[in-house]
Structure formats: structure tokens, C-alpha cells
Specification:
Number of helices: 3
Structural class: alpha/beta
Bound molecules: inosinic acid, magnesium ion
Distance between the termini: 18 Å
Strand order of the largest sheet: 4-3-2-5-6-7
Radius of gyration: 16 Å
Helix content: 10-25%
Order of helices and strands: EHEHEEEHEEEE
């Protein structure tokens, strides 16, 4: 695909299989309820759309855009809201859908902010988790895959806004980091 990618870390088949499992788990956990899938743009888009196909209970979708990284690989700890939700979330069951949790700073900020809006419940669902690089503790409810401390792209994740469209997760060469 490109000389910046070294190898596939997680194949499309593995991702699809795991997303189906998570979808079934969410459908069981929230049986009889309606949920709001809250996608954190832009990285969470591919994961959320695929996940939503495997959830059998009623759901709504909304989107939020926050920024902590700019085009840098290393977290700055600064979280800005670039786009807020379209609707209020009081009396909703929220599942925040993220591409990856790294330092945890984005998610802990976001969760705190949303808790202030008084939803019925909030859970966190992430495709990837990098537990080794955590700086702030976050309670994650659904995890696709735990990965080592590597910079990865694909399935929504970018390097300088590119490679989000790859249908698999790939590692990026060290010299580009
Ligand atoms: P954090 O948990 O606040 O450090 O930030 C998480 C965000 O950083 C994610 O939503 C991604 O946008 C970005 N990020 C962290 N690690 C990676 C990676 O390996 N590849 C691409 N983006 C990453
Ligand atoms: Mg993200």
C-alpha cells in the first residue's frame, strides 16, 4: 500500500469477527432499552458504522469531534470540542465509540463532560486499547483488541489524516514517528 506501513497487525477478518461479538454483547447487555451510539470523530466512524450493523436493539447515532493531537503523534493533553452533539442526552443510555484509547486523556475529559449532562448511563467502547501508555485512568466497558505501544493506522485511525480507509490495522515504520 505505502512505504510508511510495515505490517498488518490485525486483519479485516479478525476485526469483523470481534465487532460482531461486541455487537451481540451490547445487544444482550441493553436488552429492552434504547441506546445512543456516540461516535468520536473522525477515528471512530468506521468502527461505529460496522458495530451498529451487529446491534439488534433500537439505537440512535450522534457525532462529536474533539481534538487532542493535531497532526502530532504525541499527546498534548489539550482537548478541544470542535463539534458538539446535535441533541441533549439526558434520559439516554450512551455508549461512547472510540477508535483507540492511548493516554486516556481525551476519553476521561469527554466522559466527565457528558456526565454533567445527566444521561441515564455512559459506557465506553473502543476498537483498540493501548494500556501501556495510559496516563489517566479510564474504565473501558468494551474493548476490541489490546495492542502494544505501537503507532497504528487503518480502520478509522490516521497518520496525518491519511490511511483511515484501510480495512485492517497496520503498524507504521519507526522512522516516520
Ligand atoms: P488519548 O487516549 O487522549 O491519548 O488519545 C486518543 C486519540 O489519539 C485517539 O482517538 C487517536 O485519535 C489518537 N491516537 C492514539 N494512538 C494512536 C495511534 O496509534 N494511531 C493513530 N491515532 C492514535
Ligand atoms: Mg480518536
Amino acid at each position: 500500500m505505502s512505504d510508511i506501513l510495515i505490517e498488518t497487525l490485525i486483519s479485516e477478518e479478525e476485526i469483523t469477527r470481534r465487532i460482531k461479538e461486541i455487537g451481540q454483547q451490547i445487544s444482550n447487555d441493553y436488552k429492552g432499552k434504547e441506546i445512543l451510539l456516540l461516535c468520536v470523530l473522525k477515528g471512530g466512524v468506521m468502527f461505529m458504522t460496522e458495530l451498529s450493523k451487529h446491534i439488534s436493539i433500537p439505537l440512535k447515532m450522534d457525532f462529536m469531534s474533539v481534538s487532542s493531537y493535531g497532526n502530532e503523534v504525541v499527546s498534548t493533553g489539550v482537548v478541544k470540542i470542535l463539534k458538539d452533539l446535535d441533541e441533549p442526552i439526558n434520559d439516554k443510555h450512551i455508549i461512547i465509540v472510540e477508535d483507540i484509547i492511548d493516554s486516556g486523556q481525551t476519553l476521561s475529559y469527554l466522559k466527565q463532560l457528558l456526565e454533567g449532562r445527566d444521561p441515564k448511563s455512559i459506557k465506553i467502547c473502543t476498537l483498540l486499547d493501548k494500556p501501556q501508555t495510559r496516563k489517566v485512568e479510564v474504565n473501558i466497558d468494551y474493548v476490541g483488541f489490546c495492542i502494544p505501544d505501537e503507532f497504528v493506522v487503518g480502520y478509522g485511525l490516521d497518520y496525518q489524516q491519511k490511511y483511515r480507509n484501510l480495512p485492517y490495522i497496520a503498524k507504521v515504520r519507526k522512522e516516520y514517528m
